[in-house]
Amino acid sequence: MSRRAGRRSNRSLFAEHPQVFVVLAVFFTVMVVYMAALIDLQAVRPERYRDLAADQSIASRKIAGFRGQIVDREGYVLAASTPTQLIIADPQIVQDNDPEWTASLLAPILETDAALIVERLLPASDSDRYNEVAVTSDQDVLKQIRALVDDDETTKAFAGIVIRPEEDRLYPAGSLARPLVGRVDVDEVGRSGLEQQFDELLRGTAGREQYERGVFGSISVGQRTVEPAAKGYDLTLTIDHRVQYGTESILQDTCEKLGAAGASAIVANPATGEIYAMASVERVDQTQCGIAPYNKAAIDTFEPGSVMKLVAFAAAADSLGYTAEDRLLVPGSITVADKPFSDHPRHDEMEMTMAEALGQSSNVAAITLAQQMGSDTYYDYARQFGFGADTGLNLAGESAGVLREPSEWLGSDAGSIVIGQGMTVNLMQLSAAFNTVGNGGLYIQPSLVKAVKDADGGEAETIDSPSRQIISREAAAETLRMLRAVTSEGGTGTKASIDGYSVAGKTGTAWKVFDNGSGKLSYGTENDRRYVTTFGGLVPAEAPEISVVLVIDEPRTATSATTAAAPAFAEIAQYALRVLNVAPAGPTGDEPVWRAKRTLIRGTPAEATDSPRAGEDVAEAESIVTATPAEGATPEAVEPEPQSSVDQLVEVAPPEVLENGGPTVIAVDLASDSSGGQGRGG
Questions:
Q1: Which has the closest alpha carbon to 121: 133, 107, 138, 137?
Q2: Contact (Cβ atoms closer than 8 angstroms) between residue 499 and residue 656
Q3: Is 502 left (phi over 0), alpha (psi -120 to 50) or beta?
Q4: What gap in Å lies between CA 629 and CA 296, rounded to an integer?
Q5: What is the pLDDT of residues 532-562, one digit of tens each?
Q6: Which residues are CB-contacts of 77 (< 8 A; sequence separation ≥ 6)?
Q7: pLDDT at 671
Q8: Mean pLDDT, residues 590-611 taken together
Q9: Hey, is 116 helix, strand or coil?
Q10: Which range in 186-200, 489-503, 517-531, 649-663 is most confidently predicted, on average pLDDT?
């Protein structure tokens, strides 16, 4: 045997078997990684891993914080939220089980076709993780579904199914006051009207529930914490649903009868500025008018025409000391700059009492008074009455109108503006102006919200209405006496008179600017005119308790305020007087016949016996109608019945509402036309 053959090899194990080195290297590397991870888990970032574990084992869901109610002054519900449950499916989880089985269990409970439910359970794409299966507020339905979830035999069918609390906004009065109340979107966020204006107050604060979850959902014996939701504040409005209903109904009738494009009206309390009704209607087809989709009374502006003479005569009574019996020398015409203004009918120079001049809507007298006090003084009074400024209601889309300063007046503006031309107003401003005269010259900011209440019903916020004295009480009393001549014999508003009551009011008729197809805005031609007619009034004239102002846009069958707006005023005012139980200011013997036949209690809902659209003789009306108006029902058939709880609510689909306001209506008073200022006042 040789020495080489007997020598032991000195080569290492790793050299002869390199794979051993690789295995050991991998082993030690893995050990180092695990050690680093362990150190990170236990010493460096333990909280991160606790959070990750919690995310996987603990789920949370939102608890809806319901919006507050909107109710009228009597507690009649105009808007409220009701709890619902949203059944949601994660299609990626459901499809791994048996969606047909799940649908077969849900279909009889939801009273829906099983095939339709299967479609909602299956994913529309690979990334689809959220499908709405159903929405329900029926507690029996929810109990049946939860019983299936808790049943060991059917619980697997509901893997990926979640029931989430939600809310639905309901409007139980249907279209009643909807332009004013407004609407919310699918996320319960106010998008128009009072819903938008008071969204932060109405919107509740959402709560949250945390719970332990397993493979098939919530663990019934697991840890659970609840952060309760907070309900939003409730709004109590100054609106009276009975007056609102009557006003809307009468406006609809008037709009249809006159073939008008639309109409708006406001009924208010002169002493408090509270608004009882704010209604807007518009034409929906050739024969019918319906509730407007937005609040035209606050948003639309128009040239008021002769109704604006209220300011000139009230300012003259205050600044120049005129009384209703004082006589004024009124020439046949008056020229401002290069434009003549005259009265209709034309007359030679003559004496008129102040009451006669306003009663006959004298353009010349109004301009003469403005010249006597001076343009700056007239402008100051007009601004104090609230024209050219916001009313303070802060309604979405509300317009301040246009009233230029005297330094910006051109040519004949010093005459035109006095009789309601070359300036624009909204109906709310006119309402506030008439309220001021009816309230002893004290301007009170209009109000729509009477109180803000918390979830316990306690008053959470007091609504103040700022006030300012514009004219003296004596001047206001004299202005009321002048306004009474408008509805007396020989006045332009005799059709606004009401049996048993004295009425102080003013008419206004104006040409409307429009495009007649030429591509340019104009007042049209002699054979193609469009009109805006207005009436504002106070009842009873001696001590006003209500004011009513209304505007009719483009009446066709009657085109003057005397024949269009004045009769509508009388209907609305008489209905409001009856519902609010306002007695005549005169002797007991002056009471109208219909008042002696029935007794009303102020503030009791649904007490008006005859429908405002029925057309029957009010003296014969004796039965009380208390049915809730249904969507599309004829107004003479029903009147809203008061609701006191959300349990009584019936959902009505909200109409489309204009988000950004509506059109501006511009018009010119008939007191003067574009060919030389000859026309008629009133």
A1: 133
A2: no
A3: beta
A4: 22
A5: 999 999 999 999 999 999 999 999 999 899 9
A6: 69, 70, 71, 172, 173, 643, 644, 645, 646, 648, 649
A7: 38
A8: 40
A9: helix
A10: 489-503
CA distance 445 to 436: 10
Can you give the pTM of this predicted structure?
A: 0.74
Cβ atoms of 255 and 556 closer than 8 Å = no
3-state helix, strand, coil in the chain (%, to 5): 35, 20, 45
Q: Please write the tens of the pLDDT for every residue from 30-71.
A: 887 778 777 766 766 666 656 666 566 666 666 667 889 999
pLDDT (0 to 100) of residue 50: 63
Residue 50's contacts (CB-CB under 8 Å, 6 or more residues apart) are: none
Find, among 308, 414, 433, 432, the residue nearest to 368 by Cα: 414
- The CA distance from 364 to 340, in Å, is 10
Task: Give burial (CB, 10 Å; 0-12/13-18/19+) of 673.
Answer: middle
Among 147-151, 196-200, 378-382, which range has the highest average pLDDT? 378-382
Q: Are 527 and 327 in contact (CB under 8 A)?
A: no
As a whole number of angstroms, the distance between CA 580 and CA 600 comes to 8
First to last CA, the chain: 145
Measured at the CA of 679, the angle between CA 678 and CA 682, to 5 degrees, comes to 145
User: For residue 293, what are its two tokens?
Assistant: 């989709």
The answer to whether the CB of 161 falls within 8 A of the CB of 133 is yes
* Residue 583 near residue 502, CB atoms below 8 Å: no
Token reading at 438: 């009816």
- Cβ-in-10-Å burial (0-12, 13-18, 19+) of 427 comes to buried
Beta-carbon count within 10 A of 219 CB: 14
Contact between residue 562 and residue 584 where contact means Cβ atoms under 8 Å apart: no
Q: Which DSSP string do the residues of 68-96 spell out, in sequence order?
A: PPEE-TT--EEEEEEEEEEEEE-HHHHTT
Rounded Cα distance between 231 and 208, Å, is 14
Only one residue has tokens 């339709």, namely: 116
What CA–CA distances, in Å, run from 111 to 104, 116, 134?
Answer: 11, 11, 11
pLDDT, residue 63, reads 65
Is 580 exposed, middle or buried (CB count within 10 Å of its CB: 0-12, 13-18, 19+)?
buried
- Give the residue among 540, 358, 544, 353 at the shortest CA–CA distance from 437: 544
SS3 labels along 411-473: CCHHHHHHHCCCCEECHHHHHHHHHHHHCCCEEECCECEEEEECCCCCEEECCCCCEEECCCH
Residue 495 above 70 pLDDT? yes
Rg (CA), the chain: 36
Around Cβ 617, how many Cβ atoms within 10 Å?
Answer: 10
E-only strand ranges, 525-628: 531-539, 546-553
DSSP string, 637-681: T--PPP---GGG----PPPP--SS--PPP-EEETTS-TTTS----
What one-character-per-residue DSSP string does 492-528 give? TTGGG-BTTB--EEEEEEEEE-EE-SSSSEE--BTTB
Average pLDDT, the chain: 79
Burial class (CB in 10 A: 0-12, 13-18, 19+), 24: exposed
Instruction: Report the C-alpha dihedral over residues 548, 549, 554, 558, rounded to 10 degrees.
Output: 50
- Short-list 243, 187, 235, CA closest to 548: 243
Residue of 164, 165, 163, 161 whose CA lies nearest to 103: 161
**Lowest-confidence range among 75-89, 294-308, 366-380, 647-661?**
647-661
